[in-house]
Amino acid sequence: MPVINALASRKILDSRSEWTIETSLTVNDVTAIASVPEGTSVGKFEAKSLSVPNALQKIRNIESHIKGKNFNSQKELDEYLLELDGTADKSNLGANVILSISHSFARAFSALKKIPLYKYIADCEGMGTPATKPKIMMLIFEGGKHGSFNISIQEFMVVVDSVEEGDTVYDLARKTLLSKKLEVEVGLEGAFSPVGFSNDDILIFLSSLSKFPLALDVAASSVFNQLDFGRMLEKYNILSIEDPFGEEEWNKWADFTRSYGGEILIVGDDLVVTNARRIDKAVKMGACNAVIIKPNQIGTLTETLQAVKLAKENGFKTVVSHRSGETNDSFIADLAVGIGADFVKFGSPSRGERVAKYNRLLEIF
Description:
This protein is an alpha/beta fold. The protein has helices at residues 52-66, 74-85, 95-112, 117-123, 163-179, 199-209, 229-235, 250-260, 276-285, 301-313, 331-339, 352-364, and strands spanning 4-13, 19-27, 30-35, 135-142, 155-160, 214-217, 238-242, 265-268, 290-293, 317-321, 343-345.
C-alpha cells in the first residue's frame, strides 16, 4: 500500500534567474523530485502561484496533513490536495505547491509500479494512450516579452518531425545570421531575437531557410498586436497560430476559427489555460481547434489530464508546452508521450532547461 513517508521542498533558480520550488516526496521507500516552472506571459485565468517563501511554508504545513497517509491512485492524492486548498484558483496552497506534490507523487508511484513515467501517465484517468511521438514546434526566433520588443510576435517556430530536424534548422539559422554579421544573442527560451528585425523580416528569413511549415505564438494578451493574419496566411506557409486575440475576446476567436479553422490550427493558450471549464466554452463557441497544455496553469496532473481528455473528445489538437521560466525537470516530455500529444513546444535546442526535455524525448524514442 503506497504511504507518504516524507515531504520537503527547497528554493531553486529557474532559467530566468528567478526563484521557484523543488519538492521531494517519499512514497514507501521511493523518493521522487519535481520542480515547477513559471511563465512570463501569464494568463489572468491561470491558477495562482504563491511567492517562494509562502510556498515553502505551505509545504511545511501540508506535511503534517499528508505524512502517513496512503493514496491508491493519482486521483486520490490530487483530490485530497484540492480539498486542502479549498479554492477555485488554488490561491490558498498555490498552484506551484500543489503541482510540485502532484508531479513528485506521479514519479514516485510510477517507480513503485516499475513502469516509465509516460506509461503511468497514460494509465491515469483512463487515458489509455499508447506511446506516440509528437511533432515538434521548434523555436527559432522570439520577441515580445521573451525577446526584442521590436518583434511583436512572441514565438516563431518550425514544425518538424524530429529533434534532429529542428536542431538542423536552428544551427542553420545561427550560421546564416553570423554570415550576415547579425546578432545571435537569444531570448528567454533560447531563440534568436535580433534587434532591428520585424515580424515580416523573420517570416521571410525562416521561409527562405527551410521547407518546414511555421507555427506562431502571437501572445495577444501580453503584447499589443495589430496583425493582418489573412495577409500572413496568404504569403507564408503557416500551420498554426497561437493566441491571435486576447483571453476575453471570445467572439473574435470564434469568427477567426470560422474563417480559417479549416486551413490552420488556431491554438488557445491564455484563452483556455489548461482548464476543462474554459475548454468546454471554447468547444461550444467554436473558438479554436487546438489547445496548449501547461500543467502549472491548472495545478494537478489529474486536472491536466481531464483538460486533455475533453480537448481530444472534441477533436482538438493538443500541444504540450514549456514556460519561459523553466527548470531542468523533464516531466512535460513524459506527459506529451503519455497523453499522445500532437505537438510539443519545448523552446530552442540551445539551453539546458529546454534541452532536458528534448533529450528525454530522444531517450523514450
